[in-house]
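Repro:
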Amino acid sequence: DDAQHRAGLEMLGCTLASAVLCVICGYLTAKVAAGFSFSIREAVFHKIADFGQQEMMTFSVPSLINRTTNDITQVQMLVSMGLQIIIKSPIMAVWAVIKIVGKSWTLSAITAGFVVALLVMMVVIIGVVVPRFRRMQKLTDHINLVARENLNGINVVHAYNAEDYQNAKFRKGNETLMRTQLFNQRAFAFLLPGVTLAMNALSLVIYWVGAVLVNNVPAAAAARLTTFSNIVVFGTYATYVIMTIMMLVMIIMFMPAAQVSAQRINEVLDTQASLREGDKTESPEQGTVEFRHVSFHYPNSEKNVLEDISFQAKRGETVAFIGATGSGKTTLVSLAARFYDATGGEVLVDGMDVREYTFDALYDRIGYVTQKAVLFSGDIQENVLFGESRGDGSDEAVRQALDLAQASEFVEKLPYGVHAPIAEGGTNVSGGQKQRLSIARALARRPEILVFDDSFSALDYRTDAKLRAGLARDLKDITRLIVAQRIGTIRDADKIIVLDEGRMVGMGTHEELMQTCPIYQEIARSQLSQEELGA
């Protein structure tokens, strides 16, 4: 009796210890999985921050958002559950095999046959499902794209009564995704019942064959009881082997999605940015920009967008670019800011090739105002002092930048002034106000070179004129590159460059071009009055 009590207490102790270890294991695996996803998410975000325009076009924004959120979550789920089961299942399987090996070679062969059959079934199902999981992630990217497009353009959708069209577009992608998911889930639906059936069938076969083995032993022999007890033990432990496979099946149901997600995450992490950083921080000149026989074509195209462009902007000069839509004006100034690298020729800033600078050194020299104004959530002051720069970051610097950008007028009327909140994307301010704040952000950097990419188009003529007069008065030493559609904006520039289908067809002052450049004359006639043309 004492021996039985002791054995019972030992079993109870083992059970309690197992429960405590399970809780500790669950806690540690959750911590590891959360830490793993945190590190991966941070690495992916930092990698994307280094991407240039070329990489953004390759991946697309919805896909990158999906890879940073959904894909990392899939991998986290596998790590969280897998660590527990991957540790526990092999230990259980090895323990069970040790207990049954040598008890009956016939029954061992039967058990091995069941295990092999189950493993083959799992491999076949995974082989069928994995390609569809890869397709499913792409379909999720597409759904993300359609939803994002619809939300961003909701006013246009309403204005054009395009709800049915957008719904049909979403439904098509949604149904394709649903069919792919249904196929995967149906394939997985075979796994769990298959393993359960195998577990029960194995027990049945073991007891059936075991009954035959027991019958073969003479009834009076003591070996009959030993054989019977061996078969009972064998049946119990053989079921454990199948149970470990059942636990692995749970992991395998997560594995294909996580495998595809891991590949997609690695695609981002393994991508080498096309723009390589130089190592120079000092330059021989200050405030100069020069293009030497620059040509450029986009990575996926062989047709040049710019062809043999050469010009020089000295310190304090204003150089303007004008031409028809699609003539390459934005592309040209984006080469000066090194959003792309020229495919032919050289782009020099402050007398040195832009490829030789460190990114920090190059962007410290340039204040870039984009064609489409971009603001970030926060307040006005945070947006004006956005990022690192040569500016001192004082309240006075913010005020001066807002004054010069003609933004003080509306900022002072806001309830909290410079601390007035800005919604994500600047949706709570008008287009003209957004543009003026983005100009103030560039001015607060105190750059050597200011690049305005059609940044005055959202401003009325009066504000445009006051802003340009302020720039000419207060920023005489700062070089300005201005892309414009309106001749009134660039009429007083030191040098106007006329572009036509990527080629430079004229360069000079307004007066010179009115005499020598037919394309400039055509633009002037379409915009200026007879009096202005005569003047």
